Amino acid sequence: MSTNAAHRKWYVLLCVGTGTFLSSLNTSITNTILPTIEHSLKISSGRSEWVVLIYLLVLTMFLVPIGRFSDLWGHRRIFLAGFALFVCAAVICGLSRNFPALLFGRALLAFGGAMILSVGPALLSITFPPEQRGRALGLQALMTYIGLSLGPVLGGLLTELWGWQSTFFITVPFGIGGVLLGMLAVPKIVLLDKKLPDLKGIFLFLTVMASITLFVNAGVIAYYRAPIMTLLLIIFIAAVCAFIRVERKRASPMIDLGLFRIRNFGFGSLGAAFNYLCFFLVMFIIPFYFDRILHFSALQTGIYLAVTPLVMTVCAPIAGALSDKTGTRKLTMLGMFFSALSLALFGIMSHASAAQSGLLISGLVFAGLGTGTFAAPNNSAILSAAPRSQQGVASGVLATFRYIGMIAGTTIGASLFNAISDYFSGRQGDAQSVFLSAFEVVMWIGAAFGVLGLICAYLMRDRTPDA
């Protein structure tokens, strides 16, 4: 490898890391200030859920299609266009003064984010040799967790000083920097096999994701809920069956379903969904615990929430480097154990008032240890299992499963939490007792999903540099 190529790969890593930093910064800021947005726009908790959910839904719908487009049309142009769109969407969110405008900006922001996040891991996998891939993915995860660390404190501070709209403008200079760096650093990769994308498969995939997300978040449907939910379920089942049938027949499918027969790819993707479900459940619902039970300000909430991503920031590069030397399986299992443990600690917190502070901090720490230890080794195992010709779609699938986990965590933290709260409200008097009872049940449900993730990690084969 020439000296210029050796240097260029680190600039590519910095550029990809900037993109993941922006996405995680935006996500953590929005989670932190969501109670403030709810009060400011005078919307219900069911509607405020969609400020987070619309971002996750659009990301999840378009990550794999965009990953496939990038394999066909070029990673560089998709990646740079994503940065430019992200900057424009952040400005729209910052200028919004009502709920529909904010939702539109968040959806556009997510589409730009999908263009960045679906291509980023593929660029790293192509640029770095196998013996450095875990380290590179660990450093990329480090940038993600730096964004998650800064987001809560920065979001709380900016909200208190200049209002919640100002939090979106903070991403603009980083986005412009990402565009400029990408133009200089990201190489033009010659595509040997240009084919038309699988448009029918893409349409069916979008239908699958939209219908199931609306179905599990049916609380936003005001009228004719039962027939609409029935219709959504029918659409979902029909679209899944049609998608599988179409993809099996395609010579160049959007998703090669054969990838899921690869042990590390299939179980690794499913484990990623469970891990991010656990993480996002904590990051979504804990701000409401601070707001409604502890009555914290946005800045106080941000300071506490920074604990989790700070731990992740320390763990991610260490876990990535260790996975290159010792293998991936033990680290992914350990990460899932920590994630399940964090939710169990939150589950017993309401019954241990004397130790509440200790359990709260411990839960936040173990949540950070869980994802920080799990992510980079798991990503390395998945991408190493995928053929080089399908790195774009593989990274898109991986990102999709992460965001499926985030959507599931948000759904459990919002729709399911509200349903459980309604159940307890008829049996308990005050709102605080209802909140704590629902909080406990939801955390134990999350811990059960963490155990399922641990089983997925156990079923994977170890991946070492020699494997």
Please tell me about this protein's structure:
The chain has helices spanning 3-41, 45-73, 75-95, 99-127, 130-162, 166-169, 171-185, 199-216, 225-249, 263-292, 298-305, 307-326, 329-349, 356-385, 391-425, 431-459. The protein is 83% helix and 0% strand.
List the helices and strands and how they pair.
Layout: H1 3-41, H2 45-73, H3 75-95, H4 99-127, H5 130-162, H6 166-169, H7 171-185, H8 199-216, H9 225-249, H10 263-292, H11 298-305, H12 307-326, H13 329-349, H14 356-385, H15 391-425, H16 431-459
Helix pairs in contact: 1-2, 1-4, 1-5, 1-7, 1-10, 1-11, 2-3, 2-4, 2-8, 2-15, 3-4, 3-7, 4-15, 5-11, 5-12, 5-14, 8-9, 10-11, 10-13, 10-14, 10-15, 10-16, 12-14, 13-14, 13-16, 15-16
Low-confidence stretches: none
Tell me the number of helical segments per DSSP (H or I, 4 or more residues long): 16
Helix content: over 70%
Average pLDDT confidence is: 80
Strand segment count: 0
Helix and strand succession? HHHHHHHHHHHHHHHH
Main sheet attributes: strand count, strand direction, barrel closure: none
- The percentage of residues in β strands lies in under 5%
State the end-to-end CA separation. 23 Å
Based on helices, strands and strand pairing, what is the structural class? Answer: mainly alpha
Radius of gyration: 21 Å
| Large-scale geometry | globular
Q: How is the quaternary structure best described?
A: single chain
